[in-house]
Amino acid sequence: MKSKSGDRTAGDLLLDMRDIRIEGFSDDVWHPIIKGVDLKLHRGEVMGLIGESGAGKSTLGKAAMGYAQPGCRITDGTIMFDGMDLRAKNDAELRELHGSRIAYVAQSAAASFNPAHRLIDQCVEATVGHGLRPDDEAKADARELFAALQLPDPDNIGDRYPHQVSGGQLQRAMTAMAMSSRPDLIIFDEPTTALDVTTQVEVLAAMRDIVEQFHTAAIYITHDLAVVAQMADVIKVLRYGETVEDAPARKMLAKPEEAYTRSLWAVRSLEKPQETSEDIILRVNGVDASYGSTIKVLEDVTIDIPRGSTVAVVGESGSGKSTTARVITGLLPPMKGDVLFNDEPLPLALKDRTKDQLRRIQMIYQMADTAMNPKHTVRDIIGRPLEFYLGLSGKKLDERISELLKMIELDDSFMERLPSELSGGQKQRICIARALAADPELIICDEVTSALDQIVQEGILKLLLRLQKEFNITYLFITHDIATVKAISDQIVVMFQGRVVEQGMKNDILSPPHPDYTQLLLSSVPEMDPDWLTQLLESRTEAGGMAASGN
Amino acid sequence: MHPIVRTVLQRLGLGLLTLFVVSVIIFSSLQFLPGDFATSVLGQAATPETVAAFRKELGLNEPAITRYVQWIGGVLQGDFGSSFSGRSQGREREVMELIGPRLWNTLFLAGMTAIIAVPLALTLGITAALYRNSFYDRAVNATTLTTISFPEFFVAYILILVLATLWKVFPSLANVRESTELADRIYMTALPALTLTLVIVAHMMRMTRAAIINLLASPYIEMARLKGVSKSSVIIKHALPNAWAPIVNVIAFNLAYLVVGVVVVEVVFVYPGVGQLMVDAVTTRDIPVVQACALIFAATYILLNLFADIVSIVTNPRLLHPR
Fold first, then answer.
1. Distance between CA B95 and CA B145 in Å, rounded?
2. Least CB-CB distance to B241: which of A107, A116, A163?
3. What pLDDT is recorded for position B137?
């Protein structure tokens, strides 16, 4: 172990995990998930645990509580928490520690709060259940924690049900829940992954302050290096269930030693020179749209997409990005305005469009998993648009499928595979091939990389750029990830609450001066600098009031 | 208006509409019943003139629509008409007079069964979920599956054999009268109630178990576990409140069955319930009684399903506490 105490003065050793081995059960066999990892954490210290999905971060985090999720078992190693051997404890003894001395903050607060109970009852459940404080005292304390975490109306927000507050508020309430018993250790399991960047900043700041205030030790699990840079004193990088690198945060960020750690930065370094063209392939012209009610989801949206370039649409969830895509594809006919394709107006509704019009605009989705029929082989999936749009069959069909597989850097051995036999990145490649099969002019990419790990993301983005160059395809790229936008776009459209805030060439949009919302959005994207969050909050306080918005 | 009140009113309206459609279906399908009351009462030897005269007296010669309107108009005022049978002997009886005591008996038996079966099924389902895959879980599943797999009359006769013949704990006949005291009534109805309990418990128990187990994979259940909440609290406090909707639907379905589908058990125990009355009325082509029974059965189904709907809505905080 190279781990040393970080910036803050660390206390005694609180958690000492040695040679931890954990197995998971699938396909009737036990597979190793964690293969002999050591972890040391001192009182008051925050450790960042990073790695791509499947690296075993969450499993290791839960093991720090002595807990193995259903389908997993801890097979070897010792877990010493404050001098107690957690592996030697039975369920009832572990329950005594959970929610009193060790607390857990889950990834999706929306799913991890019980929909049937009020927030405050859930926040104090463990504290009261463990007999640490009487109910009224715990609730009074919870209200103070709500205030400390800057939740609006802290005295009453606890009486609400989970569905009545926003995702960012829920995540803060969950931090209050963890803090209620004043634990020695909190496991944060990707607590901000499901949030918008603008919301993430506030939640991060709230979590960091409260952990500091009570001198709580924490393990902060994430796949986002920049986030961990703000939170952690020490960082541990995991891959395939093994430790890659351990170092104090600042040292790790400044000088990562292992090649793998450096590769985690890779996407952020991918960059494409911006290009433009006068030839507008698609124009969304003054579109208003709504889902059946009188509330407009889109208002007067006008977007120009030049041929052969990539237009990125950015904005937080609910800003109307995906709705715009639905209008273009005809899935949601707009109330007002029209869509011009190659200067010709497209019929607004999908059913009125000709096969050829449909063929020219294709779409790739965020969840490749759900966008493919699990019972179809790769051949069926790619072959379907070839038969439907181009009428290919027999030998020609097979040749074309094989050609398309080559384009997405896969070989013929994939033809007979089912989606379940593919990795996340391969699934998304098949979806790309399916879109390409129709020989389209415009491909709408809806958050196509956000479910993927950074390294896989990089591969997909490179592939998209290469295909664009070869076939002069136009992309409309919907994303909330500014790093991706920097990497691949020519033009940027910023959306907020159903309106286009700003539209222009990438370099113009990304350089100041910005309209307020663009400024908020761009400045909220975490940077690798460990002082970024502190400086950002200071600058916002000076600017006055900006930090309060965005929820 | 609170959205719940609105939804309930909406459902109530839909229920009434369904009942109306059902009444039309009942009425028109009875038109297709082969033979009619007049011929079956007067016998094969009756002259066409006698039959025609008798039909006229019963109002059977009117057009179907007129008869439907007369019938439904009466029903809306609580008048189900008078029974055909007994008419020839000059002892005309109101349909409600025939059905009333029988319906009360049926509801009594259904209620008694429900009081035993529903708590039993819930307890078994919750404990089976709690000790999932244990010997207890398997035993409960196997037993309830066995009892549901046997035909009702078989279960009934086995119970009679064991509890009435070998050990004389309960009487084998449940021929209660209107004058029977409550205590006696409970005693006499014990065996039919037990039979029905054995028949319906499996369905409700298995749904309770499945609904709870289905929720055990939710992130909020793992969160509760990681908060150190005890096993039983996880199930009762965190899983059950979210599992009511499917459970209540199955309970409602089974309760409706207790009212409308227990004629076999009634026959075995000679219990004077509505089921037997309806079967008799069908054999004698006593149309007003058949219609009334069918309508009451339909109303039972609709009411119980409405109840289940309302419970699912009220236990869903998203609907109960809108944003």
1. 40
2. A116
3. 94
pTM above 0.90, yes or no: no
Question: Cβ-count burial of B53 within 10 angstroms (0-12 exposed, 13-18 middle, 19+ buried)?
Answer: middle
Query: Between the CA atoms of A202, A208, A211 and A213, what dihedral angle is there, to the nearest 10 degrees?
Result: -90
User: Measured over all CA atoms, what is the biggest interatomic distance in chain A, rounded to whole angstroms?
Assistant: 76
Q: What is the 3-state secondary structure (H, E, C) of A140-159?
A: HHHHHHHHHCCCCCCCCHHH
User: DSSP assignment, residue A421?
Assistant: G
Closest CA to A429 of A417, A33, A441: A417
pLDDT tens-digit readout, B63-100: 888 888 888 888 888 888 888 776 656 667 888 888 88
How far A187 CA sits from the closest chain B CA (Å)? 10
8 Å CB contact of B226 and A99: yes
Rounded Cα–Cα distance for residues B73 and B279 (Å): 25
**Cβ-defined contact of B220 to A62 (cutoff 8 Å):** no
Distance CA(B173)–CA(B168), nearest Å, equals 12
Are B321 and A164 an interchain contact pair (Cβ–Cβ within 8 Å)?
yes
Residue A176 has pLDDT above 50, yes or no: yes
Question: Nearest chain B Cα to A104, which residue?
Answer: B226
pLDDT digits (tens, 9 = 90+) for A28-51: 888 888 998 999 999 989 999 988
Backbone phi, psi, residue B150, to 5°: -80, 145
A141-150, A308-317, A531-540: range with lowest mean pLDDT: A531-540
**Strand A280-289 to A298-306 pairing:** antiparallel
Mutate to test the interface with A, among B130, B132, B220 (most CBs of A within 10 A): B220
Q: Which residues lie across from A245 on neighbouring strands?
A: A237
Task: Give the strand order in the sheet containing A29-42.
Answer: A29-42, A13-26, A72-81, A84-85
Residue A92 to residue A526: CA distance in whole angstroms: 41
What residue ranges in A355-441 does DSSP mark as E strands? 361-364
Task: Give phi and psi for A491, each to the nearest 5.
Answer: -120, 155
DSSP secondary structure string for all residues of B82-142: B-STTTTTT---BHHHHHHHHHHHHHHHHHHHHHHHHHHHHHHHHHHHHTTTSHHHHHHHH
Please list the helix, strand and coil fractions of chain A in percent, rounded to the nearest 5, in that order: 40, 25, 35
Q: Which of B228, B237, B238 sits opposite A100 (nearest CB)?
A: B228
CB proximity B52 to A under 8 Å: no
Chain A interface with B: residues with Cβ < 8 Å: 62, 65, 67, 69-70, 91, 94-100, 103-104, 106-108, 111-117, 125-126, 129-130, 160-161, 163-164, 177
DSSP code for A333: -
3-state secondary structure at position A469: helix
Give, for A425, the enclosing helix (H) or strand (E): helix A424-437
Contact B317, A163 (CB under 8 A): yes
A-chain residue closest to B321, CA distance: A161
Whole-number Å distance between alpha carbons of A11 and A13:
7
Residue carrying structure tokens 């129709």:
A438
Q: How far is CA A421 from CA A369, A375, A424, in A?
A: 11, 11, 10
Residue B315, chain A, CB below 8 Å: the answer is yes
Coarse DSSP helix, strand, coil percentages of chain B, rounded to the nearest 5 percent:
75, 0, 25
Nearest to A400 by CA among A439, A440, A442: A439
pLDDT tens, residue by residue, A423-439 = 888 899 999 999 999 99
